[in-house]
Structures are given as structure tokens and as C-alpha cells.
Amino acid sequence: MSNLKILVGCKRVIDFAVKPRVNSAKKAVETANVKHSLNPFDEIAVEEALRLREKLGNNIVKEIIALTCGPPKAQEQLRTALAMGADKAVHVEVGKDDSEANILQPLSVAKLFRAIIEKEQPNLVILGKQAIDDDASQTGQMLAGLLNWPQATFASKVDINDDKLTVTREVDGGLETISCKLPAIVTTDLRLNEPRFATLPNIMKAKKKPLVKYTPDQLNVDITPRLEIISVTEPPVRKGGTKVESVEELISKLKQAGL
Q: Which one of 5, 127, 219, 232 has the lowest number of neighbouring Cβ atoms within 10 Å?
């Protein structure tokens, strides 16, 4: 395999350290004045693309492209990927802010990715197995279906030999190893790697790397939602527990509670 081009997904999400709150409309979580960052699973995807280049060499992995779909501020997450080591960024601009009106559903994202893939012609697409905001875990699988490409999901180890992709994934009974030919879709699990920190010199270099913009209309992709969110509510508040002095008292309390 030569001239390997890797495309990685980079979704903008509320930072994992922030406790999300339901907005006043009860239709989504509050995003105004809330810290956002690169989806942790997508950060692992970027890191794996960089490790593949370090392992296979620059003469094999010719280019790593970071792709995001979202509002103008999503460029921040693309710059993070560029600072980590990606060569180029592509931004499909959707909406002007992070409001619920601009939330993209997995099928829409998969269609936008397909349109970019047709333009960029990558051999390998690496995505996080899920985003920590909607936890859908659908985009990679839908993209593989739209492209009719083989898929290897929830990867904990990735190897490439010639045009053969080998992926180890964790299953209930242990480890499963699968292989397929490129081009292919891979989604990353937590234990695949530990993402690197972007150094200050690389952050400065990232500002000079190319960033290409598109809109869904330019790509001829309909992103009209197919699902409607009726309401979003906070989880019920847990009630405080009580201590019991004996097994008999415990059984009595359980009977009183109807358990």
C-alpha cells in the first residue's frame, strides 16, 4: 500500500469535565457560554492516524485530513487536530452557533462525510466510536453502509499490511480479530491509544495549515432532521439512603417499600 490518505472525524462537543444542564426550552442541553472541546473518541482517532504514519512512514501515509461538521466555532477542534499533527482540515459549516436547531443527526453527518470522501478520495476513515454528547454510535456504521465499504468498529488495535487492514476489538467473550481490504471505516475504542498533547510550536504551525470550507448546499446534501426530540429532562434526584441495624430490619424495610 502506497499513497495512503487517512480521513479522521473531529466533532465539537461539550467538554467532558462540564456537567451538562437542560436548557429552558427542554429540547436540548444548554450550550451557551459552555466550554467545548474535541470529542475524546475522535481525539483517539486523530492519534491513531498519526501513529499509523509514524509506523508506516511518510512515504506510505501521504496525508491526514481532519473533518468536522458544525458551526464556525468548530474550527477550534480542527485546529486542535492540526496541532496534533494532521496535515489539512475540512470544515462543513452548519449553522452559526451550537443551538439545538443546528444539531446534526448521525445520518446527516454520514452523508456529509460521504460527500467529502468523494472529493478527497481517502483510503481509510477513522472515527470515534461515539460522541459523548448524543452517544449515538451510529455515524461510522451508516457511513460504511452509504459507501459500501467494510467496517471495523470499536477498535482496540489497528494494523495495516499492504492493502490489508487488521483490527482487534473487545467483545464480551474476550478479543476478536477481523481483517478486511482497504478502503475501510474504523471506529475507535477507549483503549486504542493515549492521545498526545499539542506542543506550543505545533499549535503555532497549525495556524498556517490549510483549512477548506464547504456548506451542505455546496455538497448537495439534505441535512433535514428525520427525528424530532420531544423533550429533554434532568434525571430524577436520588433519594438519600438509611442505615439498618440488622438483616431483619433490612427485610422489614424492603417489604414496606414493596420490594
A: 232
